[in-house]
Specification:
Helices cover 0% and strands 54% of the residues. The protein is built from no helices and five strands. The protein has strands spanning 2-10, 15-20, 26-30, 44-52, 55-63. The chain has a five-stranded antiparallel beta sheet, with no helix packed on it. The protein starts with a strand and ends in a 7-residue tail after the last strand.
């Protein structure tokens, strides 16, 4: 499982991009891989990478809860 930060996400179009934490590489997130997850720029996520149609995409995306309130 990898972690990263949402760089860009268009909910109406159903896609976005994540920047992987350890390599700073950017990966496409197809909206169909999101099940009831609402993402926005800056959200921290965990994900897996999968090669599909000669492109590496982020799959199995999960929002990581950042608990800042004590």
């Amino acid at each position: 499982m990898h972690t990263g930060v949402i760089r860009f996400f268009l909910p109406k179009k159903g896609f976005g991009y994540v920047i992987k934490d350890d390599s700073l590489e950017e990966y496409f997130i197809p909206g169909k891989n999101l099940r009831n997850i609402h993402l926005k720029k800056g959200d921290k996520i965990s994900f897996e990478l999968e090669k599909k149609n000669n492109q590496i995409i982020a799959t199995k995306v999960q929002l990581i809860n950042n608990k800042t309130n004590n």
